[in-house]
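Hey L., structure's done. Input below.
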Amino acid sequence: MNKLVETIKAFFEKQAFGICEFWGEKLRIKSAKIRLFFIYTSFLTIGSPIIIYLVMGFWMNLNRLIRKNRGGVWDM
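Output:
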């Protein structure tokens, strides 16, 4: 049962833009605590952190796309 739960958790963590993991690495905090912060604040403020989370996810994906498609100085 624990293996199934871990597999499901890993799937959702991989699909959730990696925002909590990114901020966890930057701030040296466990990503689970950041996820709990988003969950609790979204309950307290009626969902506004969810909008912020989605904007950060869009921004991170846009940055990855730009870095991936940008060539080097010598690529002409």
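The chain has four helices and no strands. Helices lie at 2-15, 19-27, 31-44, 48-69.

-- N.
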